[in-house]
């Protein structure tokens, strides 16, 4: 029994096992599940039947066999198709906002919460509410 | 008082964004190759397998590269215009036959006419990927220095030619400025 | 004839809605009883005509009237009757009519159960609802008329999208819309309060049950959508962070925050401007969702046929409604104040944190959904924001919230003694840690990791949620039992725990395999043996299918049989996968047919999905909790009744 960390989406029709090495296979599945199909734009190339998806999967396999890193593979795709092709926005200038946002909002929320609580703890808790 | 206006301001800011967004096509992907060096390639010629066709063919001059296939409906639609265009313009039109069957492609050109100086046969789509092709037909305008000036996705028409290609061609040729 | 009657009925409904919208608001402003009294009869009348219009459209479908363009586009002769009926709301125009119908029914309900509220207030609420109805009806009549004719009528229609030919379609949109539209009631209550200039604890008590009812329908609606996508799309996924899914989730988050904020406003008269803003936001997000789905502005698998002209209309409507409400908010909110205080360790603080974290989550999802659009408009190119980002961004505010839920539920209002609270929480915390560590380790063989964090959080919430009900069960005789509202709250939170457990386990231990199979072959996945006994062709009412018969065994023991199908619908010629699912509470076994690989072999997707049912069960339990809470006696506003326990000081001025 091999337990995978799957990312919630199903396999493509012909993907199957591309690498014998489970680590490479897991890495491959992770990468293809984060690349957007440009033809069926609501699917990853992992799920999509479009031939372009198959072509891109094949390229990714080739690049992995050549020993490229994940970052190099993503670079390869973005150079040709733009940022649109990655479902995980990269940490470049324009998408930095996306990755900072959660922390920024937590910080703002925290400040708001602290200010409200500070204000209210100074007031009386006795009132005629039940 | 002022912080209560924040939600209203945010909404007011988003409305123009939405208005502009409505007029754009969210599924159209701009080419990251624009104003960048065009990919170099060398592939077997479609009609003449012994020969090669590639970026070397148009090196040093303005050129057009049209990505086409026999299974592509839009390519059939633009084909007649391409024939006309090839006659009218002095810019060489090269073809990239993408993920097609050689026999089908050759007989297609025989039946319908061949607007291309030469077509390269990209059987497995590797070159297409290098050019960022995702949906034929696509037409690229490349300048003499090998930089991609423009990419048009969907069938090429006279309107698009006049609006997008001609100005850039003329600018390159130095007639404007 | 019937379509014309339907069309005419809609026009009549619009004119009544105009009366319902304009006159009561004018009347409330002037103190004119006669004008205000128009509200309820106008609402009833407009509802009757909307029902007639809807019935006419349904009749057109059921009688195969292909001279109606909408019917011709979305039905065919061979379509089973039940789908002919549900096809009424299967596409843009008809689903709008469903929206209008549901809004009119909610409005009549509000009219009925608002007798104990001051006339000027209920007049304003009904007036606002009337104006909203006008907006939707104008949109329908002007841009999206379902009764448009198509002549000469074709012999047969273009068939309903095969993906929609499913029981899921019959129930998901009506329930989902009941939730979406239900938030317009809270919105109307908020606007009415802002117009009158008064918002007090009594207002909060009135608003709460309406909000809870809308919320529970939305919860079920979203859960149904997720479950439907799971078994219908053939991939085994249950949430894709697709823009339209996000569009339904954001109002849910805002609605959840609203329910909790209303609790504070009702109890202590606090958080009034929060509550107002949340009430405005929940419905605004519903409207925004409508806009995103129907305008073509975003890429989505759920989007209706797109049309920028319609998009512009909805956007204008959105701008007026949301802009107007927020302008009112900017005007009125600053004056809402209260002197009530609370200590740092108090339920108020936890509910404040709850508000903040839920709002952060909703904001992040909104940002992620709109980011591609914003980037494109700002000429920064096209980007994609998908599951990898959303999962992380959503988890950041949610994980702390999950842990805080347990503590906040049992913290007293105003001020809580920490030692008392800690003593209460010790056992549940211990249980959570042990169970959270044990389950992934003993059942699935993994010790530690993110799944354990999720499992601990899940068991923590479940354990803490049961404290009050258990205490009530074991109470000394003569002491009061737990109220329905408190029981509802406990159960709703219990549902959250189930949900979190399901998500954690299935995300971590899901097994998917793509396999090449020929009839007679067996494969082993996750300890189960799947044998493809045979593949056969069969004919359905409007499709042809290839069906596989798959027998499942575990350790030789027969577990069950599945019949996954690959269907081709005759009219649209689109292929569709019907997955075979063997469901049980602790795991789903999921088999789907892929494509033929030649030589009689097929690609088959086999999945083992542990505890996935807990996800939807959790949502249903949440909704059940909401139902219990909303039906608590203190929210029964019978005609003319004023609760004897209600103190006169509950409200300030009566508008």
Structural class assignment of chain B: alpha/beta
Low-confidence stretches of chain A: 1-15
What CATH first level of chain A would be assigned?
Answer: Mainly Alpha
- Indicate the structural class of chain A: mainly alpha
Shape category of chain B? elongated
End-to-end distance of chain B: 55 Å
Distance between the termini of chain A: 58 Å
Could you estimate the helical fraction of the residues of chain B in percent?
25-40%
CATH architecture descriptor name of chain A: Orthogonal Bundle
CATH domain class of chain B: Alpha Beta
Query: What's the helical proportion of residues of chain A?
Result: 40-55%
Domain count of chain B: 1
Report the radius of gyration of chain A as a whole number of Å: 23 Å
Mean pLDDT of chain B, to the nearest integer, reads: 91
Characterize the biggest β-sheet of chain B. 5 strands, mixed
CATH topology grouping of chain A: Helicase, Ruva Protein, domain 3
Describe it.
- The complex is a heterotrimer of chains A (130), B (177) and C (655).
- Chain A has one domain: Cytochrome C biogenesis protein (Helicase, Ruva Protein, domain 3, Orthogonal Bundle).
- Chain A is built from 4 helices and no strands.
- Chain A starts with 21 loop residues before the first helix and ends in a 9-residue tail after the last helix.
- In chain B, β6 and β7 form a beta hairpin.
- The longest helix of chain B is centred in the first third of the chain and has 17 residues.
- The C terminus of chain C is likely disordered.
- Chain C has 19 helices and 10 strands.
- Chain C is an alpha+beta fold.
- Among the domains of chain C are: 165 residues, no CATH class; 103 residues, no CATH class; 101 residues.
- The interface between B and C is medium-sized, with 23 and 31 residues.
Explain the layout of strands and helices.
The complex is a heterotrimer of chains A (130), B (177) and C (655).
Chain A (H helix, E strand, L loop, with lengths): L21 H11 L18 H15 L4 H12 L14 H26 L9
Helix pairs in contact in A: 1-2
Chain B lengths: L5 H17 L19 E3 L7 E3 L8 E6 L4 H16 L4 E6 L3 H11 L5 E5 L3 H5 L7 E5 L5 E6 L4 H16 L4
Parallel strand pairs in B: 3-4, 4-5
Antiparallel strand pairs in B: 1-2, 3-6, 6-7
Chain C lengths: L1 H29 L2 H4 L2 H24 L6 H6 L6 H6 L5 H21 L6 H25 L23 H30 L4 H32 L10 H26 L3 H24 L12 H25 L14 H31 L9 H22 L9 H27 L5 H16 L1 H7 L10 H26 L1 E7 L4 E4 L2 E12 L3 E12 L2 E6 L2 E5 L5 E4 L1 E5 L2 E12 L2 E10 L2 H18 L25
Antiparallel strand pairs in C: 1-10, 2-3, 3-4, 4-5, 4-6, 6-7, 8-9, 9-10
């Amino acid at each position: 029994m091999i337990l995978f960390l799957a990312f919630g989406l199903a396999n493509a029709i012909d993907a199957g096992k591309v690498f014998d090495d489970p680590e490479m296979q897991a890495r491959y599945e992770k990468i293809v599940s984060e690349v957007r199909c440009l033809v069926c734009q609501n699917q990853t190339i992992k799920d999509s039947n479009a031939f372009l998806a198959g072509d891109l999967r094949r390229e990714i396999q080739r690049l992995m066999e050549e020993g490229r890193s994940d970052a190099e593979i993503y670079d390869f795709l973005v150079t040709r198709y733009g940022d649109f092709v990655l479902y995980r926005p990269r940490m470049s200038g324009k998408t930095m906002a996306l990755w900072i946002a959660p922390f920024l909002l937590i910080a703002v929320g925290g400040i708001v919460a602290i200010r409200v609580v500070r204000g209210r703890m100074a007031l009386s808790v006795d009132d005629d509410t039940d | 008082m002022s912080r209560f206006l924040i939600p209203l301001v945010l909404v007011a800011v988003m409305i123009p964004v939405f208005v502009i967004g409505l007029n754009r096509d969210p599924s159209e992907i701009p080419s990251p190759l624009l104003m960048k060096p065009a990919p170099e390639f060398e592939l077997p010629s479609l009609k003449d397998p012994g020969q090669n066709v590639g970026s070397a063919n148009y090196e040093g001059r303005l050129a057009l590269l049209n990505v086409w296939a026999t299974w592509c409906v839009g390519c059939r639609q633009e084909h007649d215009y391409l024939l006309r265009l090839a006659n009218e313009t002095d810019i060489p039109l090269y073809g990239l036959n993408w993920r097609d069957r050689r026999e089908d492609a050759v007989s297609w050109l025989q039946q319908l006419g061949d607007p291309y100086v030469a077509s390269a046969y990209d059987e497995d789509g590797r070159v297409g990927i290098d050019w960022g092709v995702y949906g034929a037909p696509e037409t690229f305008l490349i300048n003499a220095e090998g930089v991609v000036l423009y990419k048009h996705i969907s069938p090429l028409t006279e309107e698009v030619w006049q609006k997008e290609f001609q100005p850039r061609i003329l600018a390159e040729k130095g007639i404007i400025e | 004839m019937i379509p014309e009657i339907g069309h005419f009925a809609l026009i009549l409904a619009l004119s009544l809605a105009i009366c319902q919208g304009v006159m009561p608001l004018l009347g409330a402003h002037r103190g004119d009883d006669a004008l205000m009294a128009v509200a309820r009869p106008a609402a009833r009348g407009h509802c009757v005509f909307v029902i007639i219009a809807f019935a006419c459209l349904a009749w057109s479908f059921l009688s195969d009237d292909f001279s109606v363009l909408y019917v011709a586009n979305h039905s065919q002769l061979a379509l089973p009757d039940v789908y002919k009926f549900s096809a009424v709301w299967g596409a843009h125009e008809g689903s709008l009519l469903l929206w209008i119908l549901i809004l009119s029914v909610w409005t009549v309900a509000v009219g009925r159960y608002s007798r104990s509220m001051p006339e000027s207030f209920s007049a304003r609420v009904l007036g606002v609802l009337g104006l909203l109805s006008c907006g939707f009806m104008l949109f329908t009549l002007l841009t999206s008329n379902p009764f448009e004719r198509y002549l000469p009528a074709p012999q047969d229609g273009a068939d309903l999208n095969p993906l929609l030919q499913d029981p899921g379609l019959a129930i998901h949109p009506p329930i989902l819309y009941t939730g979406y539209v239900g938030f317009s009631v809270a919105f109307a209550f908020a606007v009415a309060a802002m117009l009158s200039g008064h918002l007090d604890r009594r207002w909060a008590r009135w608003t709460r049950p309406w909000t809870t009812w809308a919320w529970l329908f939305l919860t079920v609606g979203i859960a149904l959508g997720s479950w439907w996508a799971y078994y219908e799309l053939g991939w085994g996924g249950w949430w894709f962070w697709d823009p339209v899914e996000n569009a339904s989730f954001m109002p849910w988050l805002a609605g959840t925050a609203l329910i909790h904020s209303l609790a504070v406003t009702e109890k202590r008269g606090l958080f009034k401007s929060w509550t107002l803003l949340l009430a405005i936001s929940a419905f605004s997000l519903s409207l925004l969702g409508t806009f995103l789905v129907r305008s073509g502005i975003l890429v989505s698998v759920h989007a209706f046929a797109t049309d920028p002209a319609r998009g512009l209309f909805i956007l204008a409507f959105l701008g007026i409604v949301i802009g107007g409400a927020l302008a009112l908010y900017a005007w009125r909110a600053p004056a809402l104040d209260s002197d009530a205080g609370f200590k740092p360790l108090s339920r108020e603080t936890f509910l404040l944190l709850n508000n903040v974290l839920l709002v952060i989550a909703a904001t992040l999802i909104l940002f992620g959904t709109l980011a591609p659009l914003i980037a494109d408009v700002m000429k920064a190119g096209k980007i994609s924001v998908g599951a990898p980002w959303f999962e992380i961004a959503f988890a950041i505010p949610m994980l702390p919230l999950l842990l805080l839920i347990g503590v906040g539920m049992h913290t007293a209002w105003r001020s809580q003694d920490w030692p008392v609270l800690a003593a209460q929480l010790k056992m549940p915390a211990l249980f959570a840690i042990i169970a959270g560590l044990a389950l992934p380790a003993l059942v699935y063989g993994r010790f530690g990791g993110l799944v354990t964090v999720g499992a601990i959080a899940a068991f923590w919430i479940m354990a803490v949620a049961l404290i009050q009900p258990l205490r009530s069960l074991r109470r000394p005789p003569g002491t009061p039992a737990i109220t329905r509202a408190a029981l509802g709250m406990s159960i709703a939170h219990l549902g959250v725990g189930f949900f979190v457990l399901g998500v954690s386990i299935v995300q971590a231990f899901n097994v998917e395999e793509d396999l090449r199979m020929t009839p007679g072959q067996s494969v082993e996945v996750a300890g189960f043996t799947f044998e493809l006994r045979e593949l056969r062709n069969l004919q359905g009412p409007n499709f042809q299918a290839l069906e596989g018969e798959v027998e499942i065994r575990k350790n030789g023991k027969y577990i069950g049989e599945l019949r996954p199908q690959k269907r081709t619908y005759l009219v649209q010629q689109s292929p569709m996968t019907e997955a075979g699912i063997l469901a049980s509470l602790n795991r789903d076994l999921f088999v789907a047919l892929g494509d033929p690989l030649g030589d009689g072999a097929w690609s088959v997707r086999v999945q083992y999905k542990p505890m996935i049912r807990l996800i939807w069960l959790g949502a249903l339990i949440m909704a059940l909790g909401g139902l219990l809470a909303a039906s608590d006696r203190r929210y029964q506003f019978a005609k003319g009744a004023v609760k004897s326990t209600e103190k006169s000081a509950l409200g300030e001025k009566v508008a």
